[in-house]
Amino acid sequence: MNIISVLTSKAKKNMHLQITLTNGNIICGNIIDIDETSVLILDKEKLAATSLNMVGAWQLDLNEELDIATPEEVNFVPDEKDVEDLDIIENIEEIGEIDVAGLLDGFEPNSVIFSNIIPNKHVTKLPESFLEMECSSDRGKWDSIFSRYQNALKNNDQELFESLSDELITMGDRNPKYGIFYFNSACFKLKSYDYPAAGKLFERAFRIDKKSDYIYNAAYTYLLEGNNPKALVNLGAYFCMEYPLTDKNMWYKFCDLAKDAKDYYVFSIALNEALNKYYQLEGEKIDPLKFLIQSALYVFKDTKVIRDIIVDILTSIENNGEAPSYEMIDHFIDDLNDSMDENGLSNANDDFDLVFAILNGLCAEDETELVPVPEIKVNDDIPVIERYTTGLKKGYVYRVIPPYRYGFLKDDDGINCHFKYDVVFDDVGFLDSTTEYNQLPLLFKSIPSTLEDASTDETAQVIFSVKLLDNMINLARNFAKEREYPHAIVELDNVLDYDPDNPEAKSLKPRWEGLYEKKNRVESDKINFQPKNELEWKQKGNLLLKLGMYEESIDAFNKAFTNMSNSSSSLHGQGIAYLKTKRYEEAIVCFDKALEMNSLHYHANHARGIVYQRQGDYVHALADFNKVIKVRPDHKDAWKQKAFSHSQLKQYEKAIDAYNMALDLDPEDWVTLSNKSAAFIKQDKLFDAMKCIDKVLSYLPEHADSLFTKGYIFQKENRLEDALEYIEKSLEYDPGNVKALSKKAFVLARMGKPEIAIDVMKNALKLNMGNAKTWYYKGVVHHYAGDYEKAIEAYQESLYINPGVARVMGCKERAEKELEPSMKSIQEASDSLEHEDNLSSNEDVEDLISKLNGKFSTS
């Protein structure tokens, strides 16, 4: 028995229905609408919709069909404040004799039923440009995914939908020019009801391909999730691309969102684009134009000063019975925007500005040529000024046992925690003087206790002094002095994440938010793509930096720098742009200047340390990362970079200590755990390295780098079959990994399969002809095959790219020594054959060549 088909055959409008969803939630109420796929239910004043795929059980009242109101008939009972507002509006309408309801006749947002809105389906065909490439493995993977998708669909297998989605993300990461992988991945996330992940993936696909279908699905997903701000932004972008009258249901939703949020800025931009399209598509038809102007009246209905402008033109359209000219509508839009500006209704929406900038490409110097906008990346090991916390809690040490060097603390909720002195970072005061009446404040992170018969359930993993909160507040004050209030507020938010009741941060934040808002009212925070002053150039520079357009960002910062020399954050932003474009000397100059102005600017220390790393100056890099840690010992990324620098200096024990601190701050940072295993390998501690990798793979079984590392460890242990197995698994998920291909060839050569190894090396070199290590491994493979001439050629190519590498020079010398006996043997064979008298014919010459070849192969 199919319980869904029974429900859809028996259920009728107005019957009472109770549904138990597959996630355990229960919804009940009277049926407003039901079809084969979904149902809409009204419970008092709450409207609910669900896909029938989510139904685990149901109960239907078959005896009675209740006489209930449809959603548009539900009477809203306003509270006292709402009644006052309604009275004011009614009085205004009576005085001005404005019949708003009449003017809105035919505009029916309440008629929209969400279940009638359908998202775009996934795409099963790969782009032609992709199919032209040599990507047979990806094409095979694609076909496999959609074959398994049919099984998931048939069985409504949520876990398989999730798994297939993740496979598509991996393919997208390998082919970053194609948004289709992320779009389809998002469609599968939607099938498994993972709305937050689906929304982000649809947006990611849109940033690559800028297709309206992608941004439409993002908006649909955020509506399902109840994330109205995100839905509004994405619908605004969608209707900047598509004509509203082709999708009235979604336009109604957009108008409702804009009206409820009072986000007139996003609505006005979308309306302007819609009116432009009207004159391109509709000509002088009156009904479509009337509909669009009604939209504006609906959104601005409660704002008299704007409403009157809209009423005038709408009345004119109705009275004249014809569409006004384009020039009249253009004047209307100008009046609308001017009135919004004058009345403080043009508050910019930063999220929409970013999407709108991506949509429009941002013009280059030649205004007819659009600059492609890459995907926004904020976590590329290059620090920007953003919210950064790692889950510490504030607590108080209330008892210590000095002889045994351990103690007890409790957090603000009174939960007790045990700790040992060795988890305390730096100096947190004189612990031994702590008593119940002399408690010491600190910040800590805890894990469940592993001790037997422990008196507390939690054990502190790491403890810091509360002075790191003071450091952040002091940095925030420095930013505020520069009038960089957004950066100052970010630092305060970091403080409040750890200490929500911090009195200083709580008092400073609203004050600075007010100053920033006041400053924006005067100077405007909207991005101007053709800046007229230093502030607008700076704003454009910051936006371009976020979009990854670094050269353009540098140019904008340079044009803004006349009066920006007192802003450490702007210097930091320009330094990041130089770093991204590998102009390291200019980047260091910017970071130096920023730190001269603001010595607590740990973001600049972090970025400068990365520059030093890129230049191979690991000593200076370490000095910078240590400065970051001194200000913010909770900075996980600084610990990771410090560990990497120690590793490059062959200080592996120090590297492991730094990796351990990063893992104490974030135990689930599997990449850091994988890097820690590499430090163990360098010390030849293969057992410890394997423990790390096995833990990573227990959580991320498809992590390509960790699969490769496990194969590398097996190779070091001379377990060649196991090594090959894991290296090949790694290549399944990352087929373009030159390092893994080279190591695979090396293992095959060691296993006595030189011909296969040579073919693998050919593939590796196709991917990267300029990699010195790849040429080195090609030499090694030929060396194992006994082809010393080709081995020497490959070693020479490696040394040409990267001269002076001792290992490569040593291998080349050994190959040359191996070649000498072979050449000597060939010469001796040639000399002996020359004494023979049967060399007169061509046939005899061919015999000689054959004999020489035989001698050569034998030797």
Description:
With 859 residues, the protein is of the alpha+beta class. It has 7 domains: 71 residues, SH3 type barrels (Roll), CATH 2.30.30.100; 140 residues, no CATH class; 109 residues, Serine Threonine Protein Phosphatase 5, Tetratricopeptide repeat (Alpha Horseshoe), CATH 1.25.40; 73 residues, OB fold (Dihydrolipoamide Acetyltransferase, E2P) (Beta Barrel), CATH 2.40.50; 60 residues, no CATH class; 87 residues, Tetratricopeptide repeat domain (Serine Threonine Protein Phosphatase 5, Tetratricopeptide repeat, Alpha Horseshoe), CATH 1.25.40.10; 87 residues, Serine Threonine Protein Phosphatase 5, Tetratricopeptide repeat (Alpha Horseshoe). The protein has 37 helices and 10 strands. The protein has a 5-stranded antiparallel β-sheet with strand order 4-3-2-1-5, with helices on one face. Strands 6-7-8-10-9 form a 5-stranded mixed beta barrel. Strand 3 and strand 4 form a beta hairpin. The termini are far apart.
Structural class category: alpha+beta
- Rg, alpha carbons: 34 Å
Count the helices. How many? 37
Shape: globular
Pfam families: TPR_1, TPR_8
InterPro entries: TPR-like_helical_dom_sf, TPR_rpt, Ycf3
Keywords: Repeat, TPR repeat
Protein name: Tetratricopeptide repeat protein
Name the descriptors.
859 residues; alpha+beta; Serine Threonine Protein Phosphatase 5, Tetratricopeptide repeat; 5-stranded mixed β-barrel; 37 helices; disordered C terminus
Compact overview of the structure:
By secondary structure, the chain is an alpha+beta fold. 61% of the residues lie in helices and 8% in strands.
